[in-house]
Design goal:
alpha+beta, about 110 residues, 3 helices, 3-stranded antiparallel β-sheet, about 65% helix
Length: about 110
């Protein structure tokens, strides 16, 4: 069984991956591609799978009373508040670390497609 912090972190990075994919989808739709449809369908399938995972994570988080909140970004760092087992915990991540985790999730989604 996963621990609460792992669930919260996975939720956070999947959520950020969805936002990134939605932005990428807009770039493809508005970009100079001659044939857009295959790219659009591919990205939409990735978004669909990620949203389903986020939905399942959110359900599990509600059952375990886990919350994740963005607090602030300062330079190269972003800070999030995690509420786990009734205890608040702030974690600061280097944006590059967030990017690597989101990239890893996107690679998983590509492999699943």
């Amino acid at each position: 069984m996963q621990n609460n912090l792992d669930i919260a972190l996975r939720y956070l990075f999947v959520d950020l991956a969805i936002k990134n994919l939605e932005l990428d989808l807009q770039h493809v739709m508005n970009g100079p591609f001659k044939i857009k449809e295959p790219y659009i369908e591919f990205i939409e399938r990735m978004i669909f799978k990620a949203i389903n995972e986020r939905r399942e994570s959110k359900k599990l988080m509600c059952q375990r009373k886990i919350q994740v909140q963005f607090l602030h970004r300062q330079g190269d760092y972003s800070t999030y508040k995690f509420i786990l087992d009734g205890k608040e915990q702030e974690m600061t991540f280097m944006n590059q670390v967030i990017k690597k985790n989101v990239e890893s999730i996107m690679k998983e989604l590509i492999e699943d497609n």
